[in-house]
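Q: I'm writing up a methods section and want to include an example of the input and output format. Could you take the sequence below and give the corresponding predicted structure tokens, formatted cleanly so I can copy it straight into the document?
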Amino acid sequence: MAFSVSGIPVGRGIAIGRAWVLAPASLDVPRRTIERDEGHTEVDRLYTAVRAVDEEFEKMRQDLGKEVAAELRAFLDLQAIVLHDPMLIEATRDRILAEQCNAEWALVQQYELVAEQFDSIEDAYLRERRTDVRQIVERILKAMRNPGGSPRISLPQPSASETGPHADLPWILVAHDIAPADMLLLKQHSFVGFATDTGSPTSHTAILARSLGLPAVVGLQTLYGLIQQGEPIIIDAEAGVVLGSIDAPIRSIYEVRQAEQAVAKSRLVRLKNVAAQTLDGEAVTLLANLDLPADAAHAMDVGCQGVGLFRSEFLYMNRADPPSEDEQYQAYRNVVLALKGRPVTIRTLDSGADKDVPSVSGHREIPSNPALALRAIRLCLAEPDLFMTQLRAILRASAHGPIKLLIPLVSGPQEMVAARKMIATAMAQLAANGQAFDAHIPVGAMIEVPAAALAIDGLLPVLDFASLGTNDLIQYTLAIDRADGDVAHLYNPLHPAVLRLVHDVIKTCNRHGTPVSVCGEMAGDPELTRLLLGFGLKEFSMHPAQVLLVKQEILRSRSSDCARQAARILRQGDPAKLSAALSKWNQDRDHISG
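A: Here is the clean output for your methods example:
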């Protein structure tokens, strides 16, 4: 009998195929007491396994080829950094020698210690990096258990002798979890979808699934134990469910839906070079949010007009020391060059005592409430050397193309004034060294704190532009940690308080002639496109995968109609009634032919 398991959709579309179930490496290893003279032998086993994993990563880079490596190399590089993290490897070596124990047990114990530190991190994206550490530990354990073998996962091989009603189906990956390094290998094997028990929208599995444009569902929790190897399954990434034990009638229904979506997707692709404007001629700017430099290629493929949010945190992840000025400069420069003259908005470090920047947090106590502690611009102003290094790198990159500098978590004008003074100092330092930069680089603020949204009038004199970060704005407005399972269901972008803040910020910026964009998840939700147009928004920034869907909504909307309907919806005080009114509006919209 068919069954379904619900999770978190991170891709779009439907995948029909056979399950390729990946077995994880067990972390349940016994302790073995060793003689004192055996300690160095165990340390050698550890380092031999690390070298084997390192060599495997290098072989992957070569196997993937130049085109794929350029697109997704960052994930391999990040895992390679974790592989050589002193907190993991050198601490394991010390534990082997101090506690006279076998290498496997020492490695797992050290992982548990590191994992506890990640569990205390408030930010969902950085908390997910615990998974990267576990994946590296699993690879090292595989290498130790199989000396001379490969830490690489096994992959399905084609067989001309396969028969049966489902032999024609492609493969779908099913795993409790999967490492980015293995995801890169899977790209070569024509998997048509991914399903994992762990993960969130910010996990690397989710980011890669979006990057590859494949249907995927994560956070399924129980699927791995239910699915058999080779079993026919369906991933419905629209509904966020995976169906198992499917029969012919269910398969037939989803094949029809799949064909309909293929037609709709082909129509969307035709919109790439169509100007984004409403039926009554209002031009709209569509920008991309980038997590990694490699995402720039995807943004160009869908016709983005620039980058509205480039998150710089990836440079600081899983390392003991912050990136150098030159390392940052090269990363920012690569994105600017990839955009070929389109503007790139770079957000300065959005990290703090609640996030894993060891060179900064190592000398600070963990705060009792990290979300309200020293983070983002507060941290950067408290650590001027850290901030000045990043500012110089961004300014140097601005010599290669248009860059806008975005300051996160601003709560008032005093922070912007202080940031601008440091930007001026960084410019003076570069000028003294004869280094080129854009002396007129636009500087803006993320409006993601209710205080900044409510007092936006006082901020505008010190801003060149504003960017609404709706993810944090919703959390702070509703006092909801969306990564906390106990309250995540209360996270609601359609709460009247949230919508009124968003509306008022857009209206105020428009009145003063200050460019404003929305760069949170709300911007990429096509169900909210007409509502935001009705608020007066003319600049949307989202994951590249959502750009054409949002453009489609813009092309079949009238600004005047959107303004009237949005005003009516905004008068609703009940979240349930407001959501129902918006749903009805979307259902009643006029469609244009593709």
